[in-house]
Structures are given as structure tokens and as C-alpha cells.
Description:
Elements: E1 2-10, H1 14-32, E2 35-40, H2 45-51, H3 57-64, E3 68-73, H4 88-98, E4 103-109, H5 122-125, E5 130-136, E6 146-151, E7 154-159, H6 165-180, E8 185-190, H7 196-209, E9 216-221, H8 222-231, E10 238-241, H9 243-256, E11 264-268, E12 274-278, H10 295-308, H11 312-327, H12 343-353
Helix pairs in contact: 1-10, 1-12, 6-7, 8-9, 10-11, 11-12
Bound molecules: 3-isopropylmalic acid and magnesium ion.
Amino acid sequence: MNYNIAVIRGDGIGPEVVAEAIKVLQKIGSVYGHNFTFTDVLMGGIAYDQTGSPLPQETIEICKSSDSVLLGAVGGPKWDSLPGDKRPEAGLLGIRKALNLYANIRPAVLFPALKEASPLKEELVKNGINIYVVRELTGGIYFGERGRRTGTFGEEAYDTDCYGVEEIRRIAKVAFEAARKRNKKVTSIDKANVLENSRLWREVVHEVAKDYPDVTVSDMLVDNAAMQLVKNPAQFDVVLANNMFGDILSDEAAQITGSIGILPSSSRGDGTLGLYEPIHGSAPDIAGKNMANPIATILSVAMMLRDSFSLEAEAKAIETAVETVLNNGLRTADLGGENPISCSQMGDAIRDAIL
Ligand code: IPM
Ligand code: MG
């Protein structure tokens, strides 16, 4: 079978981690008899530098006609002073919207070999952490009306957080479907004590919950959720959140598993096309030094195989290979340890562990 993958290497450490993920995919291809075809497209700061736009139309077209999209990371200080719509991040938001990828899945799993890397006390992580964050990705304050105007305090800036019933319903369904295949528990995050759109969120989530009597649902205010994640992470199974709250809580969930450098993500819409990327950013401070951790991107490719291509055995093979190298004590710099290995050495080790 042939799979066409659009590749957005992006900025900072993006190209380094993507190169390792491609290495691993090629090995999967040769072991399992698949052919992966990669088409490089521009997005982010590099796209702005080369074309004047962080998301050229050609990139959108190629991504739309591909079977899936692999993304490294975008952004960096070089582009920080550009106007909002020219910034690398605008490319990322634009591609999510253009492909209607409204469901962002961020599994935060603690690898047994990395228990020591978790900043939490041993007693809190001894039973493991396995949180499945379902973040709404194409609505809310990220996409609401924004602007500047003059007000009582002089110049004002505003961003609008708005959600529609159908928008909430479709993401809630993703969370409940996922919970069904897991521990049947959804924690829905909101700020319903203050925000009207959170009150609507809560109403719709409970309406959707009626179709899933086998799944337990509870609401949690976002400030409490931030606290509960470090107090008792084992209580969470599926965490359902809007765009903004999901952005913040997923970084926190990532860090308690040891390093943001190991967590993958997928962004999906109604079809099988997905965008797969590490949840970490472009880390400009270590870019070009061959010291980034490629595991998050490699695990993102495993998600692509499972979720977009239904290649369960192949996905599992990658995850097992990652576990093997971690169990063997291999660590990139972010994971601590005495003798860190480089980004490409980690990629080689994972590739070689796929048999
Ligand atoms: C993420 C990132 C992005 C977001 C930024 C880079 C726009 O933080 O994917 O979590 O906020 O969605
Ligand atoms: Mg983020």
C-alpha cells in the first residue's frame, strides 16, 4: 500500500525531529511492506521568509490531497515582531482551520522507565499516568473576533471566546468515544462559574453524555484542574477541554510525565486525514545542535499509522521500540541522565529496535 504524507518540517528543531520520524517510518515501510511517499511543503517562519506568507496556498492544497500530514514545529524569536497574521503560529492555526481539524488528541503517558524524570513525588506516579487530552482545536478564543479600540483605559485589545452548540457537540463526542475504549471516564474542563460560553459547554457536554450511559462524566473548573493534575494525576482518564484550556493543561499534563519532548499529538476532523505533530514547540535555543528529543515526533508517526491508516501492528512496533530504547537507558538531554545521546542517535536506536 502507498501512503502520501505531506511533510512540514518548519522551524527550530522541527527539521531535526522530523528527519528522525521519517527514518523510523521508512524502516516500518521496509519491514511491513508499505511505501511512504513524502512531499515537503512550507509552513511557519521558513515559509514566511521564502514566500511572504506563513501558510502558502500550495501547502494547503498539497496537505488536503495527502493521506496525512507530518509536522515538526513552527516559530522562533526571529519572527516575534511580525504582525499576528504573518507570524509562524498563524500558519499553524491556518492549516488546522483549513483542514477542519477540530479534534486535537494529546495522550500524556508516563513511561515506566521515565518515572524518575517526572517532577512529581514517587507516590503520585507509582500507579502510572495515562491521560488522554481531547482539545477542541478550531474554535474558541483562538478564532473569535479580536481587535483593538479605544476604551476607558486608553487603547484596548480584545479577543472573543465563542462556541456553538454543534461545535461543542462534535468534540464532546470524540471524548466520549475515546473514553469508551479506555477507562470510561470523561472530565470536562470549563470555567462555568464565570464564563457564559463555559455554561453552554457544560450543558452540551451533559446532553451528549446521555448517549453514553456507560461513561462517567464530571465537570471540573479549569483552575482546579490545573491543581488536580499535580495533586492526583491518576484520577484522570479522558480530559475534554476547549482550545485555550486544552492548550494550557496539555503542557502541564506533558510535563508531569517527565518531558514535553516525548508527547505526540494528532489533530483530526471528520475524515481519515490527520495532522500529526509533537506537542512541544520549535525550541530555538537548541535548534541545529542535534540535541532535541525526537521521541514525540516518532510517537506522532505511530499515532498516524494507527489513527489515519489503521495500521495497528505497525504503530505498536514503533511504541515498543521507543519503550525498548528507554528501558535500555538511552536518554536525550531533556530526559536527564549522565550521558545524553543526540537526536539522530535516538532516532537510529529506535529505528534499529524495530525488528
Ligand atoms: C500548541 C501550541 C500552539 C497552540 C501555538 C504554537 C499556536 O502551543 O499546539 O499547543 O497554542 O495551539
Ligand atoms: Mg501549546
